[in-house]
Amino acid sequence: MTQSVDTAFLASLGWSDFFASQIAPDEIDLVPLRIAEVHRARLTAISAAGPVRLPLAHKINTADFAVGDWVLADPRSHLLIRRLDRRTVLQRRTEGRHVQQLAAANVDTLFIVTSCNADFSPARLERYLALANQAGTNPVILLTKADTTDDAGTFEQQARGLQRDLEVVALNGRSADAAGMLTPWCGAGQTVALVGSSGVGKSTLVNTLAGLSQDADAAQQTGDIREHDAKGRHTTTARSLHAIAGGGWVIDTPGMRTLHVSDASDGIDTLFSEITDLAPLCKFRDCTHDHEPGCAVRAAVNAGTLDADRLARWRKLLDENVSNTPVQTGPRGNKISQKKKY
Ligand SMILES: Nc1nc2c(ncn2[C@@H]2O[C@H](COP(=O)(O)OP(=O)(O)OP(=O)(O)O)[C@@H](O)[C@H]2O)c(=O)[nH]1
Ligand SMILES: [Zn+2]
Questions:
Q1: Would you state the pLDDT for residue 96?
Q2: Bridge-partner residues for 43, per DSSP?
Q3: C-alpha distances out from residue 289 to 264, 296, 339, 342, Å
Q4: How far is the CA of 145 from the centre of ligand 1 (A)?
Q5: Superfamily of domain 272-336
Q6: Which numeric CATH code is attached to 89-256?
Q7: For 73, what's the count of Cα atoms within 13 Å in the CB-facing half-sphere?
Q8: What is the pLDDT of residue 238?
Q9: Residue 224 Cα: closest atom of ligand 1
Q10: Which residues, 6+ apart, have CB-to-CB distance to 207 below 8 Å?
Q11: Contact residues of ligand 1, CB 6 A cut-off
């Protein structure tokens, strides 16, 4: 790992000082690897020499690892020694479960994919944005199927209004130009992940970015879409890390399809910053922006500077976050409900 070739390869794989600084003096001979696949009883990783399967010690639970994680391993046997701290982590809580399920780690940019058709839903995009913000990743909205409508500009404009300074790209995921339009986020060492409903074109984009033919055997299987309801079949089953033809890496995470927002209050604040910024101007510090006099948020709605639908969606998402976030149990077994911020 001290050799310059390996150092250059590691940098192209997303390695940075953030990870290097975590290596203790007695770990200097270990080799850093990046996790590419997580299965129940198996982990695979990318090394300077190509993909490797990691032998696992007894105590290791693969559910503690995410695609994109950096780990240290023995240079000869590749026995996994430990995971390094993550820069970002995308996780989700499945209904009825208390533990968060890991979806992807060390993702720089989250491509939130929707189409220029009936799939486009501000409320769903806001859920993904809250999740991206919470994870510490930079969200970019990709509007696929721009080639099927004359109205891509309207979708773009609506998407831009969902969060301050949000980047939005309308494209045809099947065309070769798509990769070129996404180069600002896909350079060497950068990692992107894709989320979005079934049928919006995630696998198509992965294939385009990886430079794979849309119908090659190695390509991700893509499914037909039922146009009338804009819902597609679920065809993607494996989660993995793919090299992007021009540089970076793309993580495809089918596990994020059924998304519930939880533990995301900071992400929601960032998403709705136009509301968060007004709240301190309300007469009451704990204003719920519902019935109180002197409410700056409702005043903005009345003045037409804040969209009433947006306020309603903010309220709904906050409630959803609170109800999906498990309550903490106090010292005497009393339930302490999560404090609502506004
Ligand atoms: N015209 C057009 N068709 C597209 C575009 N992107 C994807 N498609 C088509 O839409 C269908 C669904 O695409 P997929 O890539 O399988 O969608 P997905 O999001 O991966 O779906 P799941 O694997 O079910 O999550 C396929 O028939 C694609 O060829 C696009 O930008 N324009
Ligand atoms: Zn108020």
A1: 62
A2: 38, 54
A3: 20, 8, 16, 8
A4: 8
A5: Probable gtpase engc; domain 3 (1.10.40.50)
A6: 3.40.50.300
A7: 25
A8: 44
A9: 27
A10: 213, 214, 216, 219, 220, 222
A11: 144-145, 147-148, 172-174, 196, 198-204, 222-225, 232-236
CATH code for residues 4-83: 2.40.50.140
Taking alpha carbons only, the member of 131, 136, 170 closest to residue 154 is 170
C-alpha span between 84 and 72 (Å, rounded): 7
pTM value > 0.95: no
pLDDT at residue 342, rounded to an integer: 36
Residue 186 known to bind ligand: no
d(CA 179, CA 142): 12
Which helix H or strand E contains 274, and what residues bound it? helix 273-278
Stretches where the chain sits below pLDDT 70 are 1-5, 94-98, 212-239, 253-259, 327-342
Measured from the alpha carbon of residue 288, the closest ligand is 2
Based on C-alpha coordinates, what's the Rg of the chain? Answer: 22
DSSP string for residues in 131-195: HHHHHTPEEEEEEE-GGG-S-HHHHHHHHHTTSTT-EEEE--TTSTHHHHHTGGG-STT-EEEEE
Ligand 1 atom nearest to 236, measured from its CA: 23
277 is in an annotated binding site: no
Sequence spans of domains, the chain: 4-83, 89-256, 272-336
ipTM of the complex: 0.95
Query: Can you tell me which atom of ligand 1 is nearest the CA of 194?
Result: 19
Q: Mind giving me the DSSP string for 290-303?
A: SS-TT-HHHHHHHH
Query: What is the maximum span of the chain, computed from C-alpha positions, in angstroms?
Result: 69
CB atoms under 10 Å from CB of 323, counted, come to 13
